[in-house]
Amino acid sequence: MAKPYSELGKRSRKISSIASLCSAKLFILLAVFAILFVVLLHIQIIASTFDFTHQWRKALFTGNCTNGDQELEYSSVASKLQESVTFLPLKDLRYSSKPLQGHTWFMSSMQDTHEEGQVKYQEYPSKASKGRVLCIKGNDTHDGSWNSYALAWPHALPRNATLMKGITFVSYNHYNYDNIWHGLSAVVPFVAWRLRNNNNCSSSSPARWVLYHWGELRTTMGPWLSSLMAAAFGEPLNIEKFDGRVSSPAAAVCFERAVVMRHNEGGMSRERRLEVYDFLRCKARIFCHVSMERRRRDDEIGMTMLMRNGARSFKNQTAVAGIFREACRKVEGCRLTVAYAGELDFCGQVKLMKSTDVLVSPHGAQLTNMFLMDRNSTVMEFFPKGWLKLAGVGQYVYHWIASWSGMNHGGAWRDDTGGDGDGDVVCPFDENDRRCMSVYKNARIGYDERYFSEWAEKVARGVKLRKAEEQMLEKKTTTSSSCGC
Ligand SMILES: *[C@@H]1O[C@H](CO)[C@@H](O)[C@H](O)[C@H]1NC(C)=O
Ligand SMILES: *[C@@H]1O[C@H](CO)[C@@H](O)[C@H](O)[C@H]1NC(C)=O
Ligand SMILES: *[C@@H]1O[C@H](CO)[C@@H](O)[C@H](O)[C@H]1NC(C)=O
Ligand SMILES: *[C@@H]1O[C@H](CO)[C@@H](O)[C@H](O)[C@H]1NC(C)=O
Ligand SMILES: *[C@@H]1O[C@H](CO)[C@@H](O)[C@H](O)[C@H]1NC(C)=O
Ligand SMILES: *[C@@H]1O[C@H](CO)[C@@H](O)[C@H](O)[C@H]1NC(C)=O
Asked: Signal peptide location in the record (predicted)?
């Protein structure tokens, strides 16, 4: 029975050896499959990861998502940003009691950028605006609280907004753009801003000006001021009217780059102001083809009476001119010119100021021309009765501009006889009563023959001395035709 057992055993050994042979083969086969599978799986994973990275990168760098949901989300965020642009009134009536203080009532939610000694300004887009541009809506010329402003990101401008290219100067003026003093005060900071950025002059000329007075749109500037600005920026002014540029009154305009000024010269140091007035004088003379060289005869003294007609004029211009002519005659080289500001165009005034060393004129906007004289020239000013006590600090503006532009204010004569006869209205109240200012404001000016005569002669002699000293020191006036920019 051992045989069958052994037979069985033999067979079973044979079977088992066959089986073990088979299982080894199977194992290798399975292992190969497994490795193959793992490798394929890896290739698959790597491939899909690469694909994902690629898509993700593409979306990140192009701002595009091939995935429909992401695209939807992106455009929905953009549209939410677009809807969140909030317009506020240009003129904030909450500050109507102090329209010029601090942030002012114009664009009251905005802060100015101010570096020591420099002009105060706002620029959009900027770091301060977090890259947002300035948008303005409405073109109301009667009520500034109907006009409004907002900041918006360039990729999410308000619906239907027009983007205006280039630099836009947005000016706030509390008075007006026709009076040359008030107009000049409003535009000086733009010139200062330009000089501050003078590393590239050609890139700081405005494509357009947007003018506001109390938030109301203004579309004109007086001819004197627009000529001066054309001279300063080297091209004719483009004053924005917003007519036909906006599709509907509800639509906004946004500015690729905007500079906003609302504090006049406020914040500027004396050095910065001198720089601006030197620049303007230089540009105005080039614009009007007035020679930059000194006059041939350095011992000549130009005394110019710049007369007004009507308000604050001399009651007897012939008499006053006679006194000054006589006084001038006493000083060798002195030459008197009598001119009427109203009869001269911008270049006429620039030419006249170039040959003037002493400007003689009643208090009034025509005195603004003084910065067009050579540096260190002299001004003589005249006031009607009552101004000293009643007119407030505003009466000193021509003392200020004399200091800012490097001129000597040679003093002021104040009439104490005015308001008596000669067509003038007499103030019915006590002469220190505030109500008298309306009577004295535009009163005409009398004269004091002896005082005028001595004063004029003294000033002329002073100028003669100064010019002689300057000549000895061989001071050179600006001869550069670039004016520094
Ligand atoms: C975004 O991707 C879609 C689909 O690929 C394409 O049609 C569209 O032009 C792309 N848009 C941009 C801004 O690249
Ligand atoms: C944008 O313009 C269209 C067509 O002129 C007008 O129908 C739509 O009301 C305007 N939307 C806004 C917010 O002004
Ligand atoms: C100055 O700016 C203008 C206009 O942006 C540009 O064309 C010009 O190349 C700039 N010049 C220099 C020297 O940077
Ligand atoms: C304001 O814009 C509207 C729309 O373009 C125009 O019809 C209107 O005349 C403008 N008003 C002024 C004062 O310019
Ligand atoms: C002006 O003054 C001159 C000279 O003093 C005098 O002759 C003339 O009568 C005066 N004119 C008037 C209108 O007072
Ligand atoms: C003006 O006067 C001041 C003080 O006397 C002098 O320092 C300066 O050089 C003068 N400027 C010119 C342009 O003559």
From this structure: none
Of the ligands numbered here, which is closest to the C-alpha atom of 160?
A: 2
Assign 3-class secondary structure to the chain. Answer: CHHHHHHHHHHHHHHHHHHHHHHHHHHHHHHHHHHHHHHHHHHHHHHHHHHHHHHHHHHHHHCCCCCHHHHHHHHHHHHHHHHCCCCEECECHHHCCCCCCCCCCECCCCCCECCCCCCCEEEECCCCCCCCEEEEECCCCCCHHHCEEEEECHHHCCCCCEEEEEEEEEEEECCCCCCHHHHHHHHHHHHHHHHHCHHHHHHHCCCEEEEEECCEEECCCCHHHHHHHHHHHCCCCCECCCCCCCCCCCCEEEEEEEEEECCCCCCCCHHHHHHHHHHHHHHHHHHCCCCCCCCCCCCCEEEEEEECCCCCCECCHHHHHHHHHHHHHCCCCEEEEEEEHHHCCHHHHHHHHHCCCEEEEECCHHHHHHHHCCCCCEEEEEECCCHHHHCCHHHHHHHHHHHHCCCEEEEEEECCCCCCCCCCCCCCCCCCCHHHHHHHCCCCECCCHHHHHHHHHHHHHHHHHHHHHHHHCCCCCCCCCCCCC
Pick from 198, 202, 205 the residue to mutate for probing ligand 3's pocket: most ligand atoms within 8 Å of its CB: 202
d(CA 303, ligand 3 centre) in Å: 44
Ligand 2 geometric centre to CA of 84 (Å) = 17
Task: For ligand 3, say whether the CB of 200 is within 6 Å of any of its atoms.
Answer: yes
Nearest CA to ligand 4 atom 11: 139
**Ligand 5 atom having least distance to the Cα of 322:** 4
Residue 247 alpha carbon, nearest atom of ligand 2: 5
Q: For ligand 3, is residue 203 a contact (CB within 6 Å)?
A: yes
- Domains annotated on the chain, with CATH: 82-270 (no CATH), 300-472 (3.40.50.360)
For atom 14 of ligand 1, the residue with the nearest CA is: 64
pTM for the whole structure: 0.80
pLDDT in tens, the chain (485 residues): 444 444 444 555 554 555 555 566 666 667 766 676 665 666 555 555 555 455 555 555 555 555 677 778 888 888 888 888 999 999 999 988 888 888 889 999 999 999 889 999 999 999 999 999 999 997 899 999 999 999 999 999 998 899 999 999 999 999 999 999 999 999 999 999 988 876 566 667 899 999 999 999 999 999 999 999 999 999 999 999 988 655 566 689 999 999 999 999 888 999 999 999 999 999 999 999 997 665 656 789 999 999 999 889 999 999 999 999 999 999 999 999 999 989 999 999 999 999 999 999 999 999 999 999 999 999 999 999 888 888 888 899 999 999 999 999 999 999 887 544 455 667 888 877 888 888 888 888 999 999 999 999 999 999 999 998 888 886 555 455 678 77
